[in-house]
Amino acid sequence: GIPVRTTLDNSTTVQYAGLLRELTRKARSAVRDIDPQNDLTFLRIRSKKHEILVAPDKDYLLIVIQNP
Amino acid sequence: MSENPTSGKTSVKSPKTSAKKQKGEKKAKKSPKGIQTQLGEKDEVDLSMASIGHPEIFPLIFTTKTQEIFNCRIGEDVTEKNCFKLIKKEDIIQDLKTAAISDFHPVKKVVLEYPGEELLVVFDAKFQYGQNFYLVASEEAKENILKPPETAEEKEEEKEENREEALEVQPYKPPVQKPWVSLGSEREVEEESVKETAPKIKYMVSRVQRRFGAPLTLTDRNASHVGDSYVECTPYQDKTFIIKVLENDVGVQIVPKVREASTQTKWTYPKNAATQYFPRQLSSEEKEESLSSKKLKDFLTSVHLRMEIALQQNEIMNPFFDDWKALAEDESSSDGKPDVYLKAYQSFTDLHYLKNKTISCVCWHPTIHGIIAVSAREQLSYEEQVNLSDKSLLQQPVIVFWSFSDPVHPQLMLECPQDIYCFQFRPSDPNIIAGGCVNGQVVLWDISEHEEMLQNAKTVADGIQVTAVNMANASVLNVLSCLMKPIKYIQQLLLNVILKVILEVYEQKEKPSLMQVQQSSREPPLVRHCAISSIQYSHKKPVTDIHWQPDCSEDHQMDATLENKAEICMQLVTCSPDGSILFWDIPATKLPQPPSSGKTKVKESLYMPPDVPDTSKHLDFCWKPLIKINLCESDINREYSPTRISLRELHYRYKTSEKMQPLNILQLLAKGSPYTEMNISSSKNLKVLESISTDFFIGTEDGEIVYSDWKVEMDSDSAKPKHTQEYIIHTGTINTLQRSPFFKDTILSIGGRNFAIWKEGIMNGPILQSSCSTGRNTAGHWSLTRPGVFFIGRDDGNIDIWDLMKKTYEPCHIQNISKSAISFISPWIGSPMQHFLAVSDDLGVLHVLEICQTLIYPLIHELANVLDYFEREARYLKYREEEFLEHQESQPKTELKRSRKHRERKQYVILGIEKNKTFFIPLEYDCSTENRRREEMKQQGSADYIVFFDLEKQIQVDLGLVKGQGILSSSDV
């Protein structure tokens, strides 16, 4: 993904955007494979350090990284 | 079968005639029975038993005479069992010739043709072949008959054996051709074969001759006129002749198809390749465009709610909560209480040095495992002590080093000039130990030479003998290590090395005698102090507490360009009941640093022959404190007599070299450097000192806790007076005043019959105060690992373990350790699993206890919970204070004033002690102006100043700026 707007530094943003786009794509295809009429609406990744919240849509992703 | 009478005669006749002929022939053959000789062969054939299947056997009738001749009388020579009789061929021939009618006559020809010498005659008792004897006509059969009974049996036996063997091994036997034996199959074949059974029928057809050759008369007939004029034979299927094919033999053979093929893969030549990529990014216009696009807005509106819900959920519930961990904690806490909280691990005592003494201080070696140092003092009151101190009758006081590995022999002794009341390892360099003496002096030891020995103490049980060698080695190593120092210091080194070598030589001469003494008495090495403060400038009473302040040795290295590498911040803080607190700089020479000019001096002092009695010549006696703070109460003219002091850690001030400057000045002051230098640097120090927190707590002999500030300016005419707050809570001498290792602003004070916990900044009183216990509390220490736990030693030898997480009104556990009072407690983390608590008592015994697991590992959120508890208590105190103030305001003002007048005033003095009697100068002002002012003030006298100060105070009180309880005035002395 290409970041449109960010509050993080550039390199981190690019990394997050690229990786999470891929992940979201995979997750969406998994959901759709299971039930073609279903769709992914939200993605939460809980890690030791933060929680990453991803709200996907057709053209955009909204990524929130939450610190504890 | 209809028989034609004419033809039937002829056909039947012929068989009849043939049958008659055969019969006639047979009769002709059989009828002349008597004339056997004529018939010859044909008779013999009939005589033999060929019809039964034995053509070689010829039944005979032996008359009794014949039997006699051939010795085969029935019942005598031959019996049923022994039925065989061999008769010689010649005898038979003889008999045939002599006798008229020999019994052998019928078989004469057989006998004559017989190939062998003897003929077998068998007695046929059962008339098997019709006569009483029979002759065997062939050698082969003779053998068979003679042997069969045996061979058959044998064969059977063999067969059985074979069978048994066959079970085991079946060796291959080539098949042997055998004669065909009929088993009835030929009958089946017979039945199968087709034979004519019915007699053939013969027909004879004849015609009268005249009818042959008659003329033919042919006429036409209409086929349709007469019914049977023609017969039609239509074909039809005869069902009886339909055969269904039920079985069909078909043979199929599969032939595999074989094909040959080959491929060739191409080998590509490996090449190095590199690609560079960069993330795609939108240009600012594109960004602008997409940010303002409707799509994005739609997206945000649609996504906004979901994200908000997720964040809200996180807000409500902690997503980072580790359920698993929490589970484990619950289990461990539900284990139940251990029986013993403190388990005895080891105890140390020394009959020689520690007998009848009380242990004044216990310190773990900060770095070496299992080394603990103990100082002892006489069990005397202060007065007695003072009186006795002049006389050196007492046992040589020492600090004893014990090791876990050897509970009997001390590892090291530090020789003390006087009884030591307290001592501490230097945190940055554990080889330096500072101690406070009963007479107020401060002593320094350097045990770097013995460090190796202490480390090896574990392995070497009888390390004492080794140490002597080590000592000699260490000294040599010292020289070597000096040689190894960077080239930078070569110039200094040259001088030092020479000096050192000289010293070493001197040492080597000295040492043997010492070593001999040590070895003979099995004494551990005795280390002499390397520095001692001058009596004149030391405390006047026993040094009761000593603290190392974190120093900045790292920074020193960075500051190598400075003229003096050994500039050290205030290193030591001591306090004594004489009402003074001293800040000491350790002599630069003590530092185990690259040799400085001062080091040699120390060496000299170090290796001063120990026997020299004139201590006044000792170089160390010129060691003086940097700063002296006198605590006195101006009104009553009474001094506080601090026994314990607790300062905030100071390290954060020394981080940069710039901040080092004030300390430099102190150093320079102490060294008596020219004023000019001081002035230059002092101007820079203004800021630095501002940021320093100079507040401290003291606990006094009378049980007061005093919170004060030692940063007192000489220019106090302009500045606010310092508050000194005093609380009387404890009923006896404060013996412990300690900051929590977890909360730097939380202090535990123990004295008399109770203890209290204080929070810096909350000056209304202690945040926790215990009720009075039955006995005196004599020692205490925070737990190093649990924020809410501390240990308190009692005069009845018990240890109270307090756990604020469990109970705040009584100790959670009480354990008896000793018969006498506990004198000191010191915990130590031996390993993550093993924590120790060193407890000493008045009898001179040091108990090392192992702390149980529950007191080692903090509970979850214990830190936060304890902090919360302390803060809650603090809030409560504030609230109470406000209530109190409101209450006070309602009272008449006069009363308030009176009460305030009664409040004590504290005088607060700071002193710079210098050789040339210059005074310590507050650093916030330029030194020249400062000096001028000070001289003016001197002229005015302190009285004027106090008057002025009181006036100022009065004004402030009237303005309500100051509560009037702590009034400070600072003046020169």
TrEMBL record, chain A:
The keyword Transcription does not apply. GO terms for cellular component: cytoplasmic dynein complex; microtubule. Residues 1-67 form the Roadblock/LAMTOR2 domain. It holds the Pfam family Robl_LC7. It comes from Merops nubicus. GO terms for biological process: microtubule-based movement. It is found in: Cytoplasm, Cytoskeleton. Keywords: Cytoplasm, Cytoskeleton, Dynein, Microtubule, Motor protein, Transport. This is Dynein light chain roadblock-type 2. Belongs to the GAMAD family. Acts as one of several non-catalytic accessory components of the cytoplasmic dynein 1 complex that are thought to be involved in linking dynein to cargos and to adapter proteins that regulate dynein function. Cytoplasmic dynein 1 acts as a motor for the intracellular retrograde motility of vesicles and organelles along microtubules. Its main location: cytoplasm.
